[in-house]
Amino acid sequence: MLGPVILAASRSDKMRRLVSAAPGTKQVVARFIAGETVDDVVPIVSELSGRGLEVTLDVVGEDITTVEQSYAARDAYLELIGRLKELGLGPRAEMSVKLSMFGQSLENGHELALANVRPVVAAAAEIGTTVTLDAEDHTTLDSMFAIHEELRKDFPQTGCVIQAYLFRTEDDARRLAANGSRVRIVKGAYKEPASVALQDKPEIDKAYVRIMKILMDGEGYPMIGSHDPRLISIGQELARRAGRKLDEYEFQMLYGIRSEEQNRLAAEGHRMRVYTAYGTDWYGYFMRRLAEKPANLLFFVRSILTKG
Questions:
Q1: DSSP letters along the chain, please?
Q2: Contact partners, residue 265, CB within 8 Å, separation at least 6
Q3: pTM for this model (two decimals)
Q4: Is the pLDDT assigned to residue 3 strictly greater than 80?
Q5: Parallel, antiparallel, or unpaired: how do β-strands 221-225 and 54-59 relate?
Q6: Whole-angstrom Cα distance, residue 34 to residue 44?
Q7: Active site residues
């Protein structure tokens, strides 16, 4: 299976250099990454908003090694929020953050990440939007959930992400659904051992459906992160059975993938949010997109061959 191999490559400096130097890389990266700077991404937010779509913005990067880098990540998000405020786009664009970028893995990382993310969440609230804490590998989740709980004391709309392939996630979903959280469910895009995560796609899909039902039947706000037509259809049916109105849940898809389906769902009245990443440290994010779908890898290889 190619997925685990690609995920392993996502943490290889040698592979990072090879992929970055490949002649077709820039073309393919542009499919998934909206640009490198705030100036690149703001027009895209305006364009998506004009089509009735909402946005979640991710400044890509992770695995930092210094406290100074964690401050730079915080400041990058504060700069983004400032630009959204200037343009009046706050209510249409939330932020997604990886706590690893905010220093979670460093010494005293839990406290550092919380201290760095709090002003970002506060600034987002001031412009009428919110922040979702992205899930990373399973070793980081207890810290992420604790930070999520702490932030919700002052900013109850702060969201978090759960991953269907982890054995723990159904219990996490029940707890989050009971306390009224905003929760994005995804399948999972990190290489996890069989001791903590399902490995077979059919079993992951079944878990995803069970977790969707927990969230739809709960007190919170479900965010269905999937491009799978079958799972989207099941999500709609579960929402209907739970008596949810169209503004009481949403779908989320990645920038550059299934754009026509995004437009269709928005036209039907669904809340449709486009996960839009930007920044210079794109490698890890890009490799996980390749791992998630073999067609993405084929597209990449084809582009390299035609540019070589």
A1: -HHHHHHHHTT-HHHHHHHHHSTTHHHHHHHHB--SSHHHHHHHHHHHHHTT-EEEEEE------SHHHHHHHHHHHHHHHHHHHHHT-GGGEEEEE-GGGGTTTSTTHHHHHHHHHHHHHHHHHHTT--EEEPP-SGGGHHHHHHHHHHHHTT-TT-EEEEETTBTTHHHHHHHHHHTT-EEEEE---S---TTTB--SHHHHHHHHHHHHHHHHTSSSEEEEE---HHHHHHHHHHHHHTT--GGG-EEEEETTSSHHHHHHHHHTT-EEEEEEEESS--HHHHHHHHHH-HHHHHHHHHHHHHH-
A2: 232, 251, 272
A3: 0.85
A4: no
A5: unpaired
A6: 7
A7: 134, 184
Tokens encoding 283: 């490698």
Interatomic CA distance for residues 198 and 267, integer angstroms: 35
Q: How confident is the model at residue 280 (pLDDT cuts 50, 70, 90)?
A: confident
Helices 201-216 & 169-178, crossing angle to 10 degrees? 10
Give the chain's largest Cα–Cα span: 54
